[in-house]
DNA sequence: GATTCCTAACTAGTATACAAGTTCTTTTTC
DNA sequence: GAAAAAGAACTTGTATACTAGTTAGGAATC
């Protein structure tokens, strides 16, 4: 388990939530493994209370499953939950990119452009930096549409999805993702909701291609009835 | 504050969450009022711990705002959050009713039909029973589409929306809501996604009509910049 | 009288202690 | 030796105690 330092501005509970989340998404904590509150509390140098509260929040998105008096099970990769997370993101964000065509100000477009510049910069240099930039690109679109609470809800569920994104191979795919973002940006800039919708759906469809490969490769992490 | 008995199958935390939620949605706890953990714990006959955890979960949907070392503020009715909740419901459930046309089995249709019978039965007898039936009608559609996790996320945000639904007057409106549900059901039964989509959007549009009236009537509960 | 400062009474965040349930090992029993 | 019973060693749920920060009121000061 990877333990970054505590940010002084965050509470112990927020710190515990952040560290556990990151380790689950990065697969440093293996799907299907059991984690104990005491064990994590000791590693983080905290008492059980903030760790308990962090796990409680994580259990709401079913990324962990608290088994009373037994322990806390980190969920296996579950195709049904990934399907739900993907459905939610596609449905919500498709509507958002359309709205963004109307709502985006010059400053908003500049923020997106700046994010895209960084994506293109890191594309060949340090692809690991792409995922946070990708996440932020989508987050900016929520902010443009004043839907930050929706963003929080969608993010929570997206953890299932993010964990698999980490398994996908980089290289060619990264190139396409960045150019997808560029296409979405152009459509918003041109205030063309039809093009924005099309570009976004093309973007999200890329994931489907990888799913079968990932299923083969990492089947020890994938729960039962996933095809 | 209205305190129903504790269901033996629920934990103290779940009990606290249920009671606080219900009292906020029913407006028995007034928007804008402060509530203390100790105060609620005493009323419910619990310690602060489960109440604290319940409030923590409620704060995630911004229905309460925890002010550290000060207290817990029950949020004012906030038009921005209602707009988000409505956006999320409309966006997600519009997609769902389309999918339901394909996915609904005979047993599913029967469950919807049964719910509709009850709605029509209580329409003139006991309109207060309509809201749980309404909620359940929508929940069944999530279940048909295997999107229960989405349902949980949408429900959490819908609390903002539900609190206002409680303010809307009954009578004529109830009649229309029940017939809307019937129309959605018929479209799903006929496997007609276009009709389902149209019926659902007409259904959700009814709310807009009430908003201005409610704003006038209950402005003491409504936060700042709501028009 | 108005202002400043200090103290006492609040609050939520967190640590610790205990209760209750699960699991696995050991001991007893046949 | 096999099976059943007992108990020790875990787990999370919850109560309690303490910490630290906020607020309000009264005393001291000008």
Can you offer a commentary on this structure?
The structure is a homodimer of 227-residue chains. Chain A is mostly helical. Chain A is 67% helix and 4% strand. In chain A, helix 4 (79-103) packs antiparallel against helix 9 and helix 5 (106-122) packs antiparallel against helix 8 (172-189). Chain A starts with 11 loop residues before the first helix and ends in a 10-residue tail after the last helix. The mean pLDDT of chain A is 92. The A-B interface holds A 11, 53, 56-57, 60-62, 68, 80-81, 83-85, 87-88, 91-92, 95, 146-147, 149-150, 152-154, 156-157 and B 11, 53, 56-57, 60-62, 68, 80-81, 83-85, 87-88, 91-92, 95, 146-147, 149-150, 152-154, 156-157.
């Amino acid at each position: 388990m990877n333990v970054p330092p505590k940010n002084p501005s965050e509470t112990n509970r927020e710190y515990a939530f952040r560290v556990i989340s990151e380790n689950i998404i990065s697969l440093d904590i293996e799907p299907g493994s059991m984690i104990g509150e005491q064990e994590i509390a000791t590693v983080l140098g905290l008492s059980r209370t903030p760790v308990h509260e962090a796990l409680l929040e994580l259990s709401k998105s079913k990324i962990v499953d608290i088994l009373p008096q037994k322990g806390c099970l980190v969920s296996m990769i579950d195709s049904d939950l990934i399907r739900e997370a993907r459905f939610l993101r596609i449905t919500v964000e498709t509507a958002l990119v359309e709205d963004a065509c109307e709502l985006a100000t010059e400053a908003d477009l500049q923020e997106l452009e700046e994010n895209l510049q960084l994506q293109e910069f890191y594309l060949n240099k340090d692809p690991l930096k792409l995922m946070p930039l990708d996440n932020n690109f989508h987050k900016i679109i929520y902010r443009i549409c004043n839907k930050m609470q929706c963003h929080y809800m969608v993010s929570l569920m997206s953890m299932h999805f993010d964990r698999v994104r980490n398994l996908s191979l980089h290289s060619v795919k990264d190139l396409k993702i960045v150019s997808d973002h560029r296409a979405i940006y152009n459509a918003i800039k041109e205030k063309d909701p039809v093009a924005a919708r099309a570009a976004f759906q093309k973007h999200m469809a890329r994931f489907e291609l990888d799913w079968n490969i990932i299923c083969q490769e990492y089947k020890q992490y994938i729960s039962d009835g996933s095809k």
